[in-house]
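Example record

The entry below shows one chain as it appears in the dataset: sequence first, then C-alpha coordinates.
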Amino acid sequence: MIIGVVGKPNVGKSTFFKAATLADVEIANYPFATIKPNSGIGFVKIKCVDEFFNVQCNPRVGYCINHMRFVPIDIIDVAGVVPGAHEGKGMGLEFLNDLNQADALIHVVDASGSTNDKGEPVKPGTRDPAEDIKFLEDELDYWYLNILKKTWDKFSRAVTQTHEDVPKALHKQFSGLGSSEDLVKRILRNLSLIEKRLGDWTDKDLYSFARSLRIETKPMVIAANKVDIPEGAENYKKLRDNFPNLTIVPCSAESELALREAAKHKMINYIPGEKDFEITGTLNEKQTTALNFIKDNVLKRTEGTGVQSVLNNVIFGTLKYIPIFPGGVSKLEDQYGNVLPDCFLLPEKSTALDFAFKIHTDLGKHFIRAIDVKTKRTVGKDHPLQYGDVVEIISDK
Protein backbone atom coordinates (compact mmCIF):
# COMPACT_ATOMS: atom_id res chain seq x y z
CA MET A 1 0.00 0.00 0.00
CA ILE A 2 1.38 3.37 -1.07
CA ILE A 3 -0.07 6.82 -0.37
CA GLY A 4 0.76 9.64 -2.80
CA VAL A 5 1.08 13.27 -1.73
CA VAL A 6 0.05 15.55 -4.59
CA GLY A 7 -0.82 19.17 -5.25
CA LYS A 8 0.32 22.39 -6.88
CA PRO A 9 3.90 23.53 -6.39
CA ASN A 10 4.63 25.61 -3.30
CA VAL A 11 1.50 24.73 -1.29
CA GLY A 12 3.41 22.97 1.51
CA LYS A 13 3.34 19.53 -0.10
CA SER A 14 6.96 18.66 0.68
CA THR A 15 6.58 20.19 4.15
CA PHE A 16 3.61 17.88 4.73
CA PHE A 17 5.64 14.91 3.48
CA LYS A 18 8.60 15.75 5.72
CA ALA A 19 6.33 16.35 8.72
CA ALA A 20 4.74 12.93 8.18
CA THR A 21 8.01 11.05 7.59
CA LEU A 22 10.88 13.25 8.86
CA ALA A 23 12.57 12.34 5.58
CA ASP A 24 15.34 14.64 4.36
CA VAL A 25 13.68 16.49 1.45
CA GLU A 26 14.16 19.92 -0.10
CA ILE A 27 11.63 22.54 1.00
CA ALA A 28 11.76 25.77 -0.99
CA ASN A 29 9.55 28.78 -1.71
CA TYR A 30 9.47 28.30 -5.48
CA PRO A 31 7.75 25.96 -7.95
CA PHE A 32 9.23 22.53 -8.73
CA ALA A 33 11.55 22.28 -5.73
CA THR A 34 10.63 18.59 -6.02
CA ILE A 35 11.54 17.00 -9.36
CA LYS A 36 11.94 13.30 -8.66
CA PRO A 37 9.44 11.63 -6.31
CA ASN A 38 10.54 11.33 -2.68
CA SER A 39 9.60 8.23 -0.73
CA GLY A 40 9.42 7.74 3.01
CA ILE A 41 7.66 6.00 5.89
CA GLY A 42 4.76 7.64 7.68
CA PHE A 43 2.65 6.18 10.47
CA VAL A 44 -1.02 5.75 11.25
CA LYS A 45 -2.00 6.02 14.88
CA ILE A 46 -4.23 3.47 16.63
CA LYS A 47 -5.04 2.42 20.16
CA CYS A 48 -2.74 -0.51 20.86
CA VAL A 49 -4.19 -3.84 21.98
CA ASP A 50 -1.40 -4.24 24.54
CA GLU A 51 -3.55 -2.37 27.05
CA PHE A 52 -6.26 -5.05 26.71
CA PHE A 53 -3.73 -7.66 27.84
CA ASN A 54 -2.16 -5.36 30.47
CA VAL A 55 1.29 -5.57 28.83
CA GLN A 56 3.67 -3.25 27.01
CA CYS A 57 4.25 -4.10 23.36
CA ASN A 58 7.64 -4.04 21.58
CA PRO A 59 7.01 -3.26 17.89
CA ARG A 60 9.54 -4.56 15.38
CA VAL A 61 8.59 -1.68 13.09
CA GLY A 62 6.87 1.51 14.12
CA TYR A 63 6.59 2.43 17.79
CA CYS A 64 4.16 2.67 20.71
CA ILE A 65 3.74 5.59 23.16
CA ASN A 66 1.27 5.47 26.06
CA HIS A 67 -0.50 2.51 24.42
CA MET A 68 -0.89 4.40 21.16
CA ARG A 69 0.59 2.32 18.34
CA PHE A 70 2.13 3.92 15.25
CA VAL A 71 1.97 1.54 12.29
CA PRO A 72 4.16 2.28 9.23
CA ILE A 73 2.81 3.11 5.78
CA ASP A 74 4.65 3.98 2.55
CA ILE A 75 4.30 7.56 1.30
CA ILE A 76 5.55 9.20 -1.91
CA ASP A 77 5.79 12.92 -2.61
CA VAL A 78 5.68 13.78 -6.31
CA ALA A 79 6.50 17.09 -7.96
CA GLY A 80 3.83 19.75 -8.15
CA VAL A 81 1.06 19.38 -10.72
CA VAL A 82 0.07 22.50 -12.68
CA PRO A 83 -2.91 23.17 -14.98
CA GLY A 84 -2.34 21.39 -18.27
CA ALA A 85 -0.23 18.64 -16.66
CA HIS A 86 -2.14 15.96 -18.61
CA GLU A 87 -0.94 17.71 -21.78
CA GLY A 88 2.67 17.60 -20.58
CA LYS A 89 2.91 21.11 -19.10
CA GLY A 90 5.39 21.44 -16.25
CA MET A 91 6.68 17.90 -16.91
CA GLY A 92 3.17 16.92 -15.87
CA LEU A 93 2.92 13.54 -17.56
CA GLU A 94 6.03 12.29 -15.81
CA PHE A 95 4.72 13.44 -12.45
CA LEU A 96 1.25 12.03 -13.02
CA ASN A 97 2.73 8.68 -13.99
CA ASP A 98 4.64 8.67 -10.69
CA LEU A 99 1.24 8.63 -8.98
CA ASN A 100 0.13 5.47 -10.74
CA GLN A 101 1.63 3.30 -8.01
CA ALA A 102 -0.40 5.06 -5.30
CA ASP A 103 -3.46 3.38 -3.76
CA ALA A 104 -4.83 6.70 -2.48
CA LEU A 105 -3.90 10.36 -2.66
CA ILE A 106 -3.47 13.21 -0.21
CA HIS A 107 -4.16 16.45 -2.06
CA VAL A 108 -2.39 19.26 -0.20
CA VAL A 109 -4.22 22.53 -0.88
CA ASP A 110 -3.07 26.01 0.15
CA ALA A 111 -6.20 26.96 2.09
CA SER A 112 -4.84 30.47 2.67
CA GLY A 113 -5.00 31.22 -1.06
CA SER A 114 -1.40 32.47 -1.13
CA THR A 115 -0.23 30.62 -4.28
CA ASN A 116 -1.53 31.21 -7.79
CA ASP A 117 -2.43 28.53 -10.34
CA LYS A 118 1.27 28.07 -11.23
CA GLY A 119 2.37 27.73 -7.62
CA GLU A 120 3.87 31.20 -7.36
CA PRO A 121 3.51 33.14 -4.07
CA VAL A 122 0.75 35.77 -3.95
CA LYS A 123 -0.97 37.72 -1.21
CA PRO A 124 -3.06 35.48 1.11
CA GLY A 125 -6.70 35.42 0.07
CA THR A 126 -5.89 36.10 -3.59
CA ARG A 127 -6.51 32.54 -4.83
CA ASP A 128 -9.70 30.56 -4.18
CA PRO A 129 -8.52 27.11 -2.96
CA ALA A 130 -11.74 25.59 -4.32
CA GLU A 131 -10.28 26.15 -7.79
CA ASP A 132 -7.26 24.04 -6.83
CA ILE A 133 -9.47 21.12 -5.83
CA LYS A 134 -11.35 21.33 -9.13
CA PHE A 135 -8.20 21.72 -11.24
CA LEU A 136 -6.46 18.67 -9.78
CA GLU A 137 -9.54 16.51 -10.23
CA ASP A 138 -9.71 17.66 -13.87
CA GLU A 139 -6.03 16.89 -14.45
CA LEU A 140 -6.39 13.39 -13.01
CA ASP A 141 -9.59 12.74 -14.98
CA TYR A 142 -8.02 13.78 -18.28
CA TRP A 143 -4.88 11.82 -17.46
CA TYR A 144 -7.02 8.69 -17.14
CA LEU A 145 -8.97 9.62 -20.26
CA ASN A 146 -5.78 9.98 -22.31
CA ILE A 147 -4.60 6.55 -21.14
CA LEU A 148 -7.91 5.04 -22.24
CA LYS A 149 -7.92 6.84 -25.59
CA LYS A 150 -4.45 5.67 -26.61
CA THR A 151 -5.65 2.19 -27.54
CA TRP A 152 -9.42 2.64 -27.49
CA ASP A 153 -10.22 2.35 -31.22
CA LYS A 154 -8.23 -0.84 -31.73
CA PHE A 155 -9.31 -2.29 -28.38
CA SER A 156 -13.05 -1.58 -28.84
CA ARG A 157 -13.06 -3.08 -32.35
CA ALA A 158 -11.36 -6.25 -31.12
CA VAL A 159 -13.80 -6.70 -28.23
CA THR A 160 -16.78 -6.12 -30.54
CA GLN A 161 -15.53 -8.59 -33.16
CA THR A 162 -14.67 -11.35 -30.69
CA HIS A 163 -17.77 -10.80 -28.51
CA GLU A 164 -15.53 -10.82 -25.43
CA ASP A 165 -17.16 -10.06 -22.09
CA VAL A 166 -16.95 -6.26 -21.81
CA PRO A 167 -16.21 -5.89 -18.06
CA LYS A 168 -13.57 -8.61 -18.23
CA ALA A 169 -11.98 -7.04 -21.34
CA LEU A 170 -11.95 -3.56 -19.81
CA HIS A 171 -10.36 -4.86 -16.62
CA LYS A 172 -7.66 -6.77 -18.50
CA GLN A 173 -6.89 -3.78 -20.72
CA PHE A 174 -6.68 -1.23 -17.92
CA SER A 175 -5.68 -3.31 -14.88
CA GLY A 176 -2.58 -1.11 -14.58
CA LEU A 177 -4.87 1.64 -13.31
CA GLY A 178 -5.87 -0.53 -10.34
CA SER A 179 -9.21 -1.79 -11.63
CA SER A 180 -10.94 -5.08 -10.85
CA GLU A 181 -13.60 -6.88 -12.84
CA ASP A 182 -16.21 -6.27 -10.13
CA LEU A 183 -15.31 -2.58 -9.98
CA VAL A 184 -15.63 -2.23 -13.77
CA LYS A 185 -19.05 -3.92 -13.66
CA ARG A 186 -20.23 -1.58 -10.93
CA ILE A 187 -19.07 1.50 -12.85
CA LEU A 188 -20.73 0.31 -16.07
CA ARG A 189 -24.01 -0.29 -14.24
CA ASN A 190 -23.90 3.12 -12.56
CA LEU A 191 -23.30 4.80 -15.94
CA SER A 192 -25.92 2.67 -17.74
CA LEU A 193 -23.20 1.33 -20.04
CA ILE A 194 -23.39 -2.33 -19.08
CA GLU A 195 -25.39 -3.26 -22.20
CA LYS A 196 -23.84 -0.76 -24.62
CA ARG A 197 -21.39 -2.00 -27.27
CA LEU A 198 -17.94 -0.43 -26.89
CA GLY A 199 -18.03 0.66 -30.51
CA ASP A 200 -21.10 2.76 -29.74
CA TRP A 201 -19.57 4.64 -26.81
CA THR A 202 -19.52 8.42 -27.22
CA ASP A 203 -16.73 10.74 -26.07
CA LYS A 204 -18.98 11.61 -23.12
CA ASP A 205 -19.29 7.92 -22.21
CA LEU A 206 -15.54 7.47 -22.33
CA TYR A 207 -14.93 10.53 -20.16
CA SER A 208 -17.56 9.41 -17.62
CA PHE A 209 -15.96 5.97 -17.42
CA ALA A 210 -12.46 7.46 -17.04
CA ARG A 211 -13.60 9.82 -14.27
CA SER A 212 -15.47 7.09 -12.39
CA LEU A 213 -12.46 4.76 -12.64
CA ARG A 214 -10.19 7.53 -11.35
CA ILE A 215 -12.43 8.28 -8.38
CA GLU A 216 -12.55 4.60 -7.42
CA THR A 217 -8.88 3.74 -7.96
CA LYS A 218 -7.33 7.00 -6.71
CA PRO A 219 -9.50 8.01 -3.73
CA MET A 220 -8.45 11.29 -2.21
CA VAL A 221 -8.34 13.18 1.10
CA ILE A 222 -7.90 16.95 1.01
CA ALA A 223 -5.31 18.40 3.40
CA ALA A 224 -6.40 22.05 3.78
CA ASN A 225 -2.95 23.37 4.63
CA LYS A 226 -1.90 26.70 6.17
CA VAL A 227 -4.95 27.04 8.44
CA ASP A 228 -2.66 28.86 10.89
CA ILE A 229 -3.05 31.85 8.55
CA PRO A 230 -6.37 33.71 9.12
CA GLU A 231 -7.42 33.39 5.49
CA GLY A 232 -6.70 29.66 5.69
CA ALA A 233 -9.06 29.13 8.61
CA GLU A 234 -11.84 31.04 6.85
CA ASN A 235 -11.37 29.24 3.54
CA TYR A 236 -11.35 25.83 5.22
CA LYS A 237 -14.92 26.42 6.40
CA LYS A 238 -15.94 27.45 2.88
CA LEU A 239 -14.29 24.36 1.36
CA ARG A 240 -16.12 22.12 3.79
CA ASP A 241 -19.45 23.71 2.82
CA ASN A 242 -18.72 23.70 -0.93
CA PHE A 243 -17.49 20.10 -1.07
CA PRO A 244 -19.68 18.15 1.39
CA ASN A 245 -18.85 14.82 -0.28
CA LEU A 246 -15.07 15.20 0.11
CA THR A 247 -13.00 14.45 3.19
CA ILE A 248 -11.30 17.77 3.99
CA VAL A 249 -8.99 18.02 7.00
CA PRO A 250 -7.61 21.34 8.31
CA CYS A 251 -3.87 21.21 8.89
CA SER A 252 -0.67 23.13 9.38
CA ALA A 253 2.18 21.03 8.03
CA GLU A 254 4.73 23.64 9.05
CA SER A 255 3.55 23.47 12.68
CA GLU A 256 3.67 19.67 12.70
CA LEU A 257 7.19 19.69 11.28
CA ALA A 258 8.32 22.19 13.94
CA LEU A 259 6.84 20.05 16.72
CA ARG A 260 8.36 16.81 15.43
CA GLU A 261 11.77 18.40 15.00
CA ALA A 262 11.58 19.85 18.52
CA ALA A 263 10.61 16.43 19.90
CA LYS A 264 13.41 14.79 17.91
CA HIS A 265 15.91 17.15 19.59
CA LYS A 266 14.35 16.43 23.02
CA MET A 267 13.12 20.00 23.47
CA ILE A 268 9.52 18.87 23.99
CA ASN A 269 7.49 15.74 24.60
CA TYR A 270 5.02 15.49 21.72
CA ILE A 271 2.92 12.61 20.46
CA PRO A 272 1.84 13.13 16.84
CA GLY A 273 -1.86 13.83 16.58
CA GLU A 274 -2.18 15.20 20.12
CA LYS A 275 -3.40 18.73 20.82
CA ASP A 276 -0.72 19.65 23.36
CA PHE A 277 2.96 19.14 24.16
CA GLU A 278 5.25 19.45 27.18
CA ILE A 279 8.41 21.52 27.16
CA THR A 280 11.28 19.41 28.51
CA GLY A 281 14.40 21.20 27.28
CA THR A 282 15.96 24.63 27.44
CA LEU A 283 14.50 26.98 24.81
CA ASN A 284 15.59 30.41 23.68
CA GLU A 285 13.11 33.26 23.36
CA LYS A 286 12.52 32.70 19.64
CA GLN A 287 11.82 28.99 20.11
CA THR A 288 9.47 29.66 23.02
CA THR A 289 7.52 32.23 21.02
CA ALA A 290 7.21 29.90 18.02
CA LEU A 291 5.98 26.97 20.11
CA ASN A 292 3.49 29.14 21.99
CA PHE A 293 2.16 30.41 18.66
CA ILE A 294 1.60 26.83 17.50
CA LYS A 295 -0.12 25.92 20.75
CA ASP A 296 -2.47 28.93 20.74
CA ASN A 297 -3.16 29.31 17.01
CA VAL A 298 -3.08 25.73 15.77
CA LEU A 299 -3.38 23.04 18.43
CA LYS A 300 -6.13 24.72 20.46
CA ARG A 301 -8.12 25.82 17.41
CA THR A 302 -8.02 22.67 15.30
CA GLU A 303 -7.30 20.08 18.03
CA GLY A 304 -3.96 19.16 16.52
CA THR A 305 -1.93 20.13 13.47
CA GLY A 306 -4.05 17.86 11.26
CA VAL A 307 -1.19 15.90 9.67
CA GLN A 308 -1.80 12.75 11.69
CA SER A 309 -5.54 13.12 11.16
CA VAL A 310 -5.02 13.24 7.39
CA LEU A 311 -3.00 10.01 7.42
CA ASN A 312 -5.54 8.21 9.59
CA ASN A 313 -8.41 9.44 7.42
CA VAL A 314 -6.75 8.06 4.30
CA ILE A 315 -6.06 4.59 5.70
CA PHE A 316 -9.05 3.97 7.95
CA GLY A 317 -11.68 6.31 6.49
CA THR A 318 -11.04 6.29 2.74
CA LEU A 319 -9.32 2.95 2.11
CA LYS A 320 -11.15 1.34 5.05
CA TYR A 321 -8.24 -0.77 6.28
CA ILE A 322 -8.26 -2.43 9.69
CA PRO A 323 -5.31 -3.21 12.01
CA ILE A 324 -4.86 -6.89 12.92
CA PHE A 325 -2.25 -8.29 15.33
CA PRO A 326 -0.76 -11.79 15.22
CA GLY A 327 -0.50 -13.43 18.63
CA GLY A 328 -0.98 -16.63 20.57
CA VAL A 329 -3.51 -17.53 23.25
CA SER A 330 -0.74 -18.73 25.56
CA LYS A 331 2.04 -16.48 24.28
CA LEU A 332 1.99 -12.94 22.91
CA GLU A 333 5.78 -12.83 22.45
CA ASP A 334 7.82 -13.79 19.40
CA GLN A 335 10.91 -16.02 19.60
CA TYR A 336 12.99 -13.03 20.70
CA GLY A 337 10.69 -12.08 23.56
CA ASN A 338 9.10 -9.08 21.81
CA VAL A 339 5.48 -8.60 22.93
CA LEU A 340 2.95 -8.12 20.11
CA PRO A 341 5.77 -7.17 17.74
CA ASP A 342 3.69 -6.92 14.54
CA CYS A 343 0.57 -5.17 13.34
CA PHE A 344 -0.78 -5.64 9.83
CA LEU A 345 -3.15 -3.38 7.92
CA LEU A 346 -5.74 -5.36 5.95
CA PRO A 347 -8.70 -4.31 3.80
CA GLU A 348 -12.06 -4.23 5.51
CA LYS A 349 -13.93 -7.57 5.36
CA SER A 350 -10.68 -9.56 5.32
CA THR A 351 -10.97 -13.10 6.65
CA ALA A 352 -8.82 -15.27 8.90
CA LEU A 353 -7.46 -16.98 5.78
CA ASP A 354 -6.58 -13.61 4.21
CA PHE A 355 -4.64 -12.80 7.36
CA ALA A 356 -2.79 -16.11 7.23
CA PHE A 357 -1.65 -15.39 3.68
CA LYS A 358 -0.67 -11.85 4.72
CA ILE A 359 1.68 -13.23 7.38
CA HIS A 360 3.20 -15.91 5.14
CA THR A 361 2.11 -17.82 2.04
CA ASP A 362 2.79 -21.18 3.74
CA LEU A 363 0.45 -20.31 6.61
CA GLY A 364 -2.30 -19.63 4.11
CA LYS A 365 -1.67 -22.78 2.10
CA HIS A 366 -1.59 -25.00 5.20
CA PHE A 367 -4.32 -23.19 7.17
CA ILE A 368 -6.30 -25.37 9.60
CA ARG A 369 -8.06 -22.89 11.84
CA ALA A 370 -7.61 -19.59 13.65
CA ILE A 371 -8.15 -18.46 17.22
CA ASP A 372 -9.50 -15.08 18.32
CA VAL A 373 -6.96 -14.45 21.09
CA LYS A 374 -9.11 -11.90 22.93
CA THR A 375 -12.06 -14.29 23.29
CA LYS A 376 -10.09 -17.56 22.93
CA ARG A 377 -12.71 -18.65 20.39
CA THR A 378 -11.78 -20.93 17.49
CA VAL A 379 -12.84 -19.58 14.09
CA GLY A 380 -12.72 -20.86 10.51
CA LYS A 381 -11.02 -19.56 7.40
CA ASP A 382 -14.03 -17.45 6.35
CA HIS A 383 -14.33 -15.70 9.71
CA PRO A 384 -14.50 -11.90 9.09
CA LEU A 385 -11.91 -9.98 11.07
CA GLN A 386 -12.70 -6.87 13.08
CA TYR A 387 -10.70 -3.73 13.83
CA GLY A 388 -8.03 -4.51 16.44
CA ASP A 389 -8.40 -8.29 16.46
CA VAL A 390 -5.52 -10.44 17.74
CA VAL A 391 -5.41 -13.71 15.82
CA GLU A 392 -3.44 -16.94 16.17
CA ILE A 393 -3.14 -19.02 12.99
CA ILE A 394 -2.97 -22.80 13.31
CA SER A 395 -1.50 -24.64 10.31
CA ASP A 396 -0.24 -28.16 9.57
CA LYS A 397 3.23 -26.91 8.80
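Notes for this example: DSSP finds 13 helices and 14 strands in the chain. Confidence is low (pLDDT under 50) at residues 30-35.
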